[in-house]
Automatic annotation (TrEMBL):
Stated family: Belongs to the ACC deaminase/D-cysteine desulfhydrase family.
PANTHER family hit by this protein: 1-AMINOCYCLOPROPANE-1-CARBOXYLATE DEAMINASE-RELATED (PTHR43780:SF2)
Domain (Tryptophan synthase beta chain-like PALP) ranges: 15-295
Pfam families found in the cross-reference section: PALP (PF00291)
Protein's UniProt name: Pyridoxal-phosphate dependent enzyme
UniProt keyword annotation of NAD present: no
Keywords: Pyridoxal phosphate
The keyword Chloroplast is assigned to this record: no
Taxonomy, superkingdom: Bacteria
Cofactor(s) annotated in UniProt: pyridoxal 5'-phosphate
Length: 307
Protein backbone atom coordinates (compact mmCIF):
# COMPACT_ATOMS: atom_id res chain seq x y z
CA UNK A 1 0.00 0.00 0.00
CA UNK A 2 1.47 3.44 -0.87
CA UNK A 3 2.30 5.72 2.06
CA UNK A 4 -0.20 8.53 2.71
CA UNK A 5 0.96 11.92 1.43
CA UNK A 6 1.16 15.06 3.56
CA UNK A 7 -1.65 16.60 1.47
CA UNK A 8 -3.89 13.74 2.65
CA UNK A 9 -3.46 15.08 6.19
CA UNK A 10 -5.62 18.07 5.18
CA UNK A 11 -3.75 20.96 6.79
CA UNK A 12 -5.65 24.15 7.45
CA UNK A 13 -3.61 26.44 5.18
CA UNK A 14 -3.30 29.37 4.96
CA UNK A 15 -3.70 29.36 8.73
CA UNK A 16 -6.37 31.71 10.15
CA UNK A 17 -5.45 35.33 10.92
CA UNK A 18 -7.75 36.82 13.54
CA UNK A 19 -7.98 40.25 15.13
CA UNK A 20 -7.58 40.29 18.93
CA UNK A 21 -9.32 43.04 20.81
CA UNK A 22 -6.82 43.92 23.54
CA UNK A 23 -6.85 47.25 25.39
CA UNK A 24 -3.10 47.03 26.12
CA UNK A 25 -2.54 47.44 22.36
CA UNK A 26 -5.57 49.58 21.47
CA UNK A 27 -4.65 52.30 23.96
CA UNK A 28 -1.39 52.82 22.04
CA UNK A 29 -3.12 52.79 18.66
CA UNK A 30 -1.69 49.37 17.75
CA UNK A 31 -3.75 46.52 16.20
CA UNK A 32 -2.97 42.99 17.33
CA UNK A 33 -3.55 40.06 14.97
CA UNK A 34 -3.06 36.40 15.89
CA UNK A 35 -1.64 34.18 13.15
CA UNK A 36 -3.11 30.86 14.25
CA UNK A 37 -0.51 28.37 13.03
CA UNK A 38 -1.56 26.31 16.06
CA UNK A 39 -4.68 25.42 14.05
CA UNK A 40 -2.87 24.05 10.96
CA UNK A 41 -3.08 20.44 12.12
CA UNK A 42 -3.96 18.86 15.49
CA UNK A 43 -0.80 16.70 15.55
CA UNK A 44 1.65 18.71 13.45
CA UNK A 45 1.02 21.93 15.26
CA UNK A 46 2.25 25.36 14.27
CA UNK A 47 5.75 25.72 12.94
CA UNK A 48 6.11 21.94 13.15
CA UNK A 49 3.96 21.54 10.06
CA UNK A 50 5.86 24.18 8.17
CA UNK A 51 9.29 22.82 9.14
CA UNK A 52 8.70 19.07 9.15
CA UNK A 53 6.60 18.51 6.05
CA UNK A 54 9.34 19.37 3.51
CA UNK A 55 11.69 17.07 5.43
CA UNK A 56 9.20 14.20 5.61
CA UNK A 57 8.67 14.46 1.89
CA UNK A 58 12.44 14.37 1.37
CA UNK A 59 12.71 11.27 3.61
CA UNK A 60 10.72 9.28 0.99
CA UNK A 61 9.75 6.51 3.35
CA UNK A 62 13.12 6.13 5.09
CA UNK A 63 13.37 5.99 8.88
CA UNK A 64 13.49 9.53 10.29
CA UNK A 65 15.99 10.08 13.09
CA UNK A 66 15.84 13.28 15.10
CA UNK A 67 16.88 14.80 18.43
CA UNK A 68 15.35 16.60 21.38
CA UNK A 69 15.04 17.11 25.10
CA UNK A 70 12.58 15.31 27.35
CA UNK A 71 9.77 17.82 26.63
CA UNK A 72 10.59 18.54 23.00
CA UNK A 73 7.62 19.69 20.91
CA UNK A 74 9.68 18.74 17.86
CA UNK A 75 10.12 15.10 18.96
CA UNK A 76 6.40 14.80 19.63
CA UNK A 77 5.50 16.25 16.24
CA UNK A 78 7.98 13.97 14.44
CA UNK A 79 6.53 10.92 16.20
CA UNK A 80 3.00 11.95 15.26
CA UNK A 81 4.05 12.53 11.67
CA UNK A 82 5.59 9.07 11.59
CA UNK A 83 2.31 7.52 12.72
CA UNK A 84 0.25 9.54 10.25
CA UNK A 85 2.52 8.95 7.27
CA UNK A 86 3.65 5.41 8.04
CA UNK A 87 7.30 6.43 8.54
CA UNK A 88 9.43 4.73 11.20
CA UNK A 89 10.87 7.33 13.61
CA UNK A 90 13.68 7.32 16.16
CA UNK A 91 14.07 10.02 18.78
CA UNK A 92 17.51 10.58 20.30
CA UNK A 93 16.78 12.06 23.72
CA UNK A 94 19.18 14.20 25.77
CA UNK A 95 19.80 12.66 29.22
CA UNK A 96 20.94 9.08 29.72
CA UNK A 97 19.53 9.12 33.26
CA UNK A 98 15.99 9.38 31.83
CA UNK A 99 16.26 5.83 30.50
CA UNK A 100 15.68 4.42 34.00
CA UNK A 101 12.78 6.70 34.92
CA UNK A 102 9.10 6.49 34.01
CA UNK A 103 8.50 8.37 30.76
CA UNK A 104 7.01 11.86 31.09
CA UNK A 105 3.71 12.57 29.24
CA UNK A 106 5.52 14.06 26.25
CA UNK A 107 7.81 11.04 25.71
CA UNK A 108 4.91 8.67 26.45
CA UNK A 109 3.05 10.29 23.56
CA UNK A 110 6.12 9.80 21.33
CA UNK A 111 6.24 6.08 22.16
CA UNK A 112 2.50 5.66 21.62
CA UNK A 113 3.00 7.19 18.20
CA UNK A 114 5.53 4.47 17.43
CA UNK A 115 8.76 6.41 17.98
CA UNK A 116 11.73 4.39 19.23
CA UNK A 117 13.62 6.36 21.87
CA UNK A 118 17.35 6.27 22.43
CA UNK A 119 18.64 8.10 25.49
CA UNK A 120 22.17 9.47 25.31
CA UNK A 121 24.36 11.26 27.83
CA UNK A 122 24.65 15.02 27.59
CA UNK A 123 28.18 15.04 26.23
CA UNK A 124 27.28 12.67 23.36
CA UNK A 125 24.15 14.72 22.76
CA UNK A 126 26.17 17.93 22.41
CA UNK A 127 28.34 16.24 19.76
CA UNK A 128 25.40 14.67 17.89
CA UNK A 129 26.14 16.41 14.58
CA UNK A 130 29.80 15.30 14.58
CA UNK A 131 29.85 12.76 11.71
CA UNK A 132 31.55 10.05 13.84
CA UNK A 133 29.11 10.43 16.75
CA UNK A 134 26.16 10.49 14.36
CA UNK A 135 27.30 7.42 12.47
CA UNK A 136 27.77 5.53 15.77
CA UNK A 137 24.26 6.52 16.79
CA UNK A 138 22.82 5.39 13.47
CA UNK A 139 24.72 2.09 13.69
CA UNK A 140 23.48 1.53 17.23
CA UNK A 141 19.88 2.01 16.11
CA UNK A 142 20.33 -0.09 12.96
CA UNK A 143 19.41 2.80 10.68
CA UNK A 144 22.45 3.57 8.56
CA UNK A 145 20.40 5.00 5.67
CA UNK A 146 18.09 7.04 7.91
CA UNK A 147 16.97 10.56 7.07
CA UNK A 148 18.38 12.79 9.81
CA UNK A 149 16.51 15.90 10.92
CA UNK A 150 18.50 18.19 13.24
CA UNK A 151 17.38 19.20 16.73
CA UNK A 152 14.44 21.61 16.52
CA UNK A 153 13.98 20.58 12.88
CA UNK A 154 15.86 23.60 11.50
CA UNK A 155 17.65 22.94 8.22
CA UNK A 156 17.40 24.61 4.79
CA UNK A 157 14.27 22.62 3.83
CA UNK A 158 12.57 23.69 7.06
CA UNK A 159 13.53 27.31 6.45
CA UNK A 160 12.02 27.12 2.96
CA UNK A 161 8.87 25.63 4.53
CA UNK A 162 8.53 28.72 6.73
CA UNK A 163 8.77 31.15 3.80
CA UNK A 164 5.10 30.45 3.14
CA UNK A 165 4.24 31.76 6.63
CA UNK A 166 5.72 35.12 5.62
CA UNK A 167 3.91 35.07 2.27
CA UNK A 168 0.57 34.43 4.00
CA UNK A 169 1.16 37.62 6.00
CA UNK A 170 2.10 39.85 3.06
CA UNK A 171 0.00 43.02 3.13
CA UNK A 172 -1.65 41.99 6.40
CA UNK A 173 0.68 43.44 9.08
CA UNK A 174 3.57 45.89 9.46
CA UNK A 175 5.42 43.87 12.08
CA UNK A 176 5.38 40.11 12.70
CA UNK A 177 6.57 38.60 15.98
CA UNK A 178 7.70 35.01 16.47
CA UNK A 179 9.28 33.05 19.33
CA UNK A 180 12.67 31.53 18.53
CA UNK A 181 14.54 28.43 19.61
CA UNK A 182 16.90 27.53 16.78
CA UNK A 183 15.84 30.47 14.58
CA UNK A 184 14.63 28.42 11.59
CA UNK A 185 11.10 29.79 11.70
CA UNK A 186 12.30 33.41 11.85
CA UNK A 187 14.79 32.80 9.02
CA UNK A 188 12.04 31.58 6.67
CA UNK A 189 9.31 33.95 7.86
CA UNK A 190 11.50 37.04 7.28
CA UNK A 191 12.33 35.80 3.79
CA UNK A 192 8.64 35.50 2.88
CA UNK A 193 7.58 38.96 4.06
CA UNK A 194 7.23 41.96 1.71
CA UNK A 195 9.98 44.63 1.73
CA UNK A 196 7.86 47.05 3.81
CA UNK A 197 7.31 44.49 6.59
CA UNK A 198 9.68 43.45 9.39
CA UNK A 199 9.93 40.49 11.74
CA UNK A 200 10.89 40.48 15.41
CA UNK A 201 12.26 37.27 16.93
CA UNK A 202 11.93 36.59 20.65
CA UNK A 203 14.53 34.00 21.71
CA UNK A 204 13.59 31.72 24.60
CA UNK A 205 17.14 30.46 25.10
CA UNK A 206 20.14 32.55 26.10
CA UNK A 207 23.62 32.91 24.75
CA UNK A 208 23.17 35.74 22.29
CA UNK A 209 23.82 33.38 19.37
CA UNK A 210 20.43 33.53 17.73
CA UNK A 211 21.06 36.32 15.20
CA UNK A 212 24.16 34.49 13.98
CA UNK A 213 22.16 31.25 13.68
CA UNK A 214 19.45 32.97 11.64
CA UNK A 215 22.06 34.50 9.34
CA UNK A 216 23.72 31.09 8.92
CA UNK A 217 20.38 29.39 8.18
CA UNK A 218 19.49 32.06 5.60
CA UNK A 219 22.92 31.69 4.02
CA UNK A 220 22.45 27.91 3.75
CA UNK A 221 18.84 28.13 2.54
CA UNK A 222 19.00 31.13 0.20
CA UNK A 223 22.68 31.87 -0.32
CA UNK A 224 22.50 35.21 1.58
CA UNK A 225 20.46 37.42 3.91
CA UNK A 226 16.73 37.87 3.32
CA UNK A 227 14.10 40.24 4.72
CA UNK A 228 14.21 42.73 7.57
CA UNK A 229 14.39 41.18 11.01
CA UNK A 230 15.80 41.71 14.48
CA UNK A 231 15.87 39.79 17.73
CA UNK A 232 15.01 41.02 21.19
CA UNK A 233 16.78 38.97 23.85
CA UNK A 234 15.08 40.54 26.88
CA UNK A 235 12.22 38.09 27.30
CA UNK A 236 13.90 34.77 28.04
CA UNK A 237 12.63 34.64 31.63
CA UNK A 238 15.70 32.77 32.81
CA UNK A 239 16.02 30.49 29.79
CA UNK A 240 14.48 27.46 28.14
CA UNK A 241 11.55 25.85 29.96
CA UNK A 242 11.66 28.48 32.72
CA UNK A 243 8.17 29.76 33.44
CA UNK A 244 8.29 32.16 36.38
CA UNK A 245 5.06 33.01 38.19
CA UNK A 246 4.77 36.36 36.41
CA UNK A 247 4.87 34.70 32.98
CA UNK A 248 2.43 31.95 34.02
CA UNK A 249 -0.01 34.59 35.29
CA UNK A 250 0.38 36.57 32.06
CA UNK A 251 -0.37 33.45 29.98
CA UNK A 252 -3.45 32.55 32.01
CA UNK A 253 -4.74 36.10 31.70
CA UNK A 254 -4.13 36.07 27.92
CA UNK A 255 -6.04 32.78 27.64
CA UNK A 256 -8.99 34.30 29.46
CA UNK A 257 -8.97 37.51 27.44
CA UNK A 258 -8.75 35.81 24.05
CA UNK A 259 -10.08 32.28 24.55
CA UNK A 260 -6.93 30.80 23.05
CA UNK A 261 -4.68 28.18 24.71
CA UNK A 262 -1.22 29.69 25.24
CA UNK A 263 1.81 27.41 24.96
CA UNK A 264 4.08 28.46 27.83
CA UNK A 265 7.67 27.81 26.69
CA UNK A 266 7.63 29.84 23.49
CA UNK A 267 4.33 31.52 22.67
CA UNK A 268 3.80 33.06 26.13
CA UNK A 269 7.23 34.73 26.02
CA UNK A 270 6.59 36.19 22.56
CA UNK A 271 3.17 37.56 23.59
CA UNK A 272 4.63 39.02 26.78
CA UNK A 273 7.37 40.67 24.69
CA UNK A 274 4.77 42.27 22.42
CA UNK A 275 2.83 43.73 25.33
CA UNK A 276 6.10 45.13 26.72
CA UNK A 277 7.19 46.55 23.33
CA UNK A 278 3.85 48.31 22.91
CA UNK A 279 3.86 49.74 26.41
CA UNK A 280 7.41 51.11 26.06
CA UNK A 281 6.44 52.80 22.79
CA UNK A 282 8.56 50.63 20.48
CA UNK A 283 5.59 50.06 18.16
CA UNK A 284 4.32 53.36 16.74
CA UNK A 285 0.61 54.24 16.79
CA UNK A 286 -1.00 52.97 13.59
CA UNK A 287 1.13 49.79 13.55
CA UNK A 288 -0.53 46.44 12.90
CA UNK A 289 1.39 43.64 14.56
CA UNK A 290 0.81 39.92 13.90
CA UNK A 291 1.82 37.46 16.62
CA UNK A 292 2.58 34.02 15.21
CA UNK A 293 1.05 31.33 17.43
CA UNK A 294 3.69 28.71 16.69
CA UNK A 295 2.38 26.01 18.99
CA UNK A 296 -0.25 24.77 21.41
CA UNK A 297 0.15 23.46 24.97
CA UNK A 298 1.52 19.91 24.99
CA UNK A 299 0.27 16.86 26.92
CA UNK A 300 0.49 16.84 30.70
CA UNK A 301 0.36 19.79 33.05
CA UNK A 302 1.51 23.15 31.71
CA UNK A 303 4.64 24.35 33.50
CA UNK A 304 3.44 27.00 35.93
CA UNK A 305 5.76 27.04 38.90
CA UNK A 306 8.43 29.64 39.43
CA UNK A 307 11.84 28.01 38.78
C1 LIG B 1 5.88 26.30 19.97
C2 LIG B 1 7.20 26.67 19.37
N1 LIG B 1 7.39 27.93 18.98
C3 LIG B 1 8.56 28.34 18.45
C4 LIG B 1 9.62 27.47 18.31
C5 LIG B 1 10.92 27.97 17.77
O1 LIG B 1 11.17 27.56 16.48
P1 LIG B 1 12.63 27.66 15.87
O2 LIG B 1 13.43 26.55 16.48
O3 LIG B 1 12.42 27.49 14.42
O4 LIG B 1 13.20 28.99 16.24
C6 LIG B 1 9.47 26.13 18.70
C7 LIG B 1 10.61 25.20 18.53
O5 LIG B 1 10.60 24.06 18.74
C8 LIG B 1 8.23 25.73 19.27
O6 LIG B 1 8.03 24.47 19.69
Amino acid sequence: MPLPTTAALRPRLPSPLTEADDDRFARHGVRLLLKRDDLIHPDLVGNKWRKLVPNLEAARGRTVVTFGGAYSNHLRATAAAGRLLGLPTIGVVRGHELADRPLNPSLTRCVRDGMRLRFVDRSTYRRKHDPDVLSELLDATGTRDAYVVPEGGSNPLAVHGCVELGRELCGRADVVAVACGTGGTLAGLAAGLAPDQRAIGVPVVGGGFLAAEVRALQQEAFGGPRGTWSVDERFRFGGYARVPTELAAFAEDFEQRHGMPVERLYVAKMLYALVALVSEGSLAPGTTVAAVVTGAPGPGPQPSASR
